[in-house]
Amino acid sequence: MDVDNCMQGGWLKIVYVVFAFCSALFLGALKGLLVGPIAGLVLIIGNVGVILGLLPAHIAWAVYTIIRTNRFDAPLKVAILIALPALFGIWLALSIAGSVIVGIGYGFFTPWVSSFEAFRHENQSKRFFHCVVDGTWDTVKGSCTMVRDFADLCFHSYLLYLKELRESPVSNEPRTLRLIHVPGLIVVGLLGLIVDIPSYTIIAVVKSPYMLFKGWFRLTHDLISREGPFLETVCIPIAGLTILFWPIVVIGSILFAIFSSFFIGLYGSVIVYQERSFRRGVAYVIAMIAEFDEYTNDWLYLREGTVFPRPSYRKKSGSEPEYSVGRLGGRLSSTSGEAPAMLMPSLIHSVSVREAINEVKMVQIWTNMMKSCEIRGKELLDGDVITPVDLCEWLKAKSGNEATIIGVGLPCYCFLQTLLNSIRSGSNGLLILDDVEINHLNRPKDKLLDWFFNPIMVLKEQIRVIKLGDNEVRLLEKLVLFGSNTERMDAWDNGSSVPQDSLRAAQIEGISRRMVGMVRSASKLPTYRRRFRQVVKELIAHASEKQDIARCNSMTSTSCAEEEQV
Questions:
Q1: Number of continuous H segments (helices) and E segments (strands) in the chain
Q2: Is residue 294 within 8 Å of 306, Cβ to Cβ?
């Protein structure tokens, strides 16, 4: 009897999962057909409007920057100006095509995925409600948010890049170009497009069937053995959607390979310029085919190596930049500076939802960073170190180069406090809010994060090695918050003092400059400005509330005094 009940319960569970999957699939498709065109059009029209609307300004700013900068000599400036029409033509074609693809994919598939994510709720009524509602209005708002982030990237980040290029220190050695290398630059650039684009396309298309069936095999194996995303019952519908949409993932990987081959092919001109050799530029074009083939072999667990030739295109075998660690004498290499390859989903055994929680996600780092800015900002506001006027000036600023006390100083001050807390606690990585530690084991496996994480670890080690005193820490806080604003630095009496040792003072100033540079680089990333703008608004609300409380206290004390006189 018990066996029959167990079998009946098992069949009911299977029927429930199948019915839930089919229902979510139907509702997702219906929402995709209703909401997808609206959200897709918002994203496409918005992005294309930003691209075309800012194109004249982009061209004017680029020409002005190339003429004014002291980083390039006259022949190199002429070469860049001649190449600008082709570069902007490629930008227009790829950005508009990318906006269309992203708009269609986001508009139609986000409502679908949202319907399956509703099964994460424990209550049955909540599951049904969110399965119907999620992915409708949120998708449209998400399209508007993506357009806003893209506009910030094209306007504020682009201007900041150009301003840094114009105002680069005179001490930096200008980059020169000999006219004899100009034909080589053009030929290798065209050769890279002619050779790498078809090669990448052929390799991606030929290996796509293996990626398709290998992915299906891995996901089906996890389904049968209840591993990875199939470990929890509520996640089975989502994992089923993954199996159903796996061909779309494969097609997306092929498109990304073709898209990236444009930039990889054009990078051959940069190799010719850097190495001052036409032969090495041609070697780069050939070697990139082998690099891509080996990269895809590794991800798909095919044979090791590649059948294509891989000639050397660098004079030195170790061309990666290194970051010194103060007096330790050690070196930490940065990530490889080679051109990127194909975006390939990993086909290794998946981790379960519970296991994935232990990994620090990129969105968690962003959220934590902004929360830290809000907390530290409120502390500085309460201490009258920064004022509501500073916050309003940043909101009114037309570019990231204005109101630097809030735009650069505040996040840099929070960054410094994070480094100091990590050093005091003896952490091997970064200790952020809620005692979450980011280290080499649990950090997000993201190429973009590698550009920041390794230098941050080096900077942290430098601060730890020189063993700053309390007065020196206070001086460093002033430097990162106010920068070159000596008037505001003198007005903040935090107990700091300038070291008598000139070497010590130079070390502290060097650390502050590196921190400011890292924060400026992070501020150019997508979504940063929108998130930080919300933090500034929260700080303004906090300042207004503080002023209202002070006004109420003042009125109360005045009324009490009048009553005593009566």
A1: 18, 4
A2: yes
In whole angstroms, what is the distance from residue 286 CA to residue 173 CA? 31
| pTM for this model (two decimals) | 0.73
CA dist list (Å): 363 to 61, 220, 367, 531: 33, 29, 6, 11
User: Which tens digits make up the pLDDT trace of 54-64?
Assistant: 999 999 999 99
Q: Find out whether 31 and 108 touch, Cβ atoms under 8 Å.
A: no
Amino acid symbol at 115: S
Residue for token pair 């994510």: 117
Return the closest-CA partner of residue 334 out of 458, 454, 457, 514: 454
Strands (E), 483-536: none
Residue pLDDT, tens place only, 513-534: 899 888 888 888 888 888 899 9
- Phi, psi at 332, each rounded to 5°: -120, 115
Q: What is the pLDDT, as a whole number, of residue 259?
A: 85
Cβ atoms 275, 281 nearer than 8 A? yes
Nearest to 498 by CA among 463, 465, 472: 472
Counting beta carbons within 10 angstroms of the beta carbon of residue 50, is it exposed (0 to 12), middle (13 to 18) or buried (19 or more)? buried
Query: What span, in angstroms and rounded, lies between the C-alpha atoms of 384 and 493?
Result: 11
State the sign of the Cα–Cα–Cα–Cα dihedral 392, 421, 359, 259: positive
Residue with tokens 């990987």: 253
Single out the residue of 26, 41, 48 nearest to residue 140, CA to CA.
41
Residue 344 pLDDT greater than 50, yes or no: no
The contacts of residue 479 (CB under 8 Å, 6+ apart) are 489, 508, 509, 512
Our CA angle for 90, 96, 98, nearest 5°, is 95
Question: Residue 561 corresponds to which amino acid?
Answer: A
Quote the Cα angle for 169-174-175, to 5°.
135
Residues 6+ apart with CB under 8 A from 68: 166
Longest dimension (CA), the chain: 99
